[in-house]
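Repro:
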Amino acid sequence: LLVCVEPILDFDERFFAEDIKFIHPKVVVVGYDNYHWQLPEPALAKTEALISELEKFTKVVRKSLRKAWWEK
């Protein structure tokens, strides 16, 4: 099972990794919006923390990772 979190939107860090873990993905793809729609993106540090949690139980493919548009 592949889970795609692209474009990533802001999330509740207390639950999101566990919610993904519940469906037993083999791979999770994580990336930011490439089209500059100014979506409600999480801070890059928050995304990196999510990826670290996901890597404890599945493979993670990192796509376009950057600071959120509002962090600039």
